[in-house]
Amino acid sequence: MSSKIFSMISGGGVTIINGKTYKGNNVTITGDNEVIIDGVKQEGFGDSPIAKFEISIHGNVDKLDASHAKVINVIGDVNNVITHSGNCVISNNVKGNIETHSGDVTVKGNVEGGCETFNGSISANNIDGKVKSKF
Fold first, then answer.
1. 3-state class of 55 per DSSP?
2. Tens digit of each residue's pLDDT (9 = 90 or more) over 36-46
């Protein structure tokens, strides 16, 4: 298996990747464009270019880690967010920390932890922890 470009641990919500709906707790997309849900490779995913992934998550997420995707929308709370390239919109709160390298993270609620960015932006109603920019 090649490296992960997206991984998520959730409470079993619904994940939509490029319009296709999946249900499960652990979602991974590999560099070979494989979608793996709870350890099972999903058939019929296709050859979507990695940079074109559009991901929508309906439910709370424990950990969200994306090396690159066009956009990630989370309709729920997230404990921790790590993005490397691509934008992420979270409709509720982030209970832990946010780290981004070159993507923008928008939190429509509050961030209870800290935020760190290299060349992206992080916005939220309120950020309780430290905010650090490496740029």
1. strand
2. 999 999 876 65
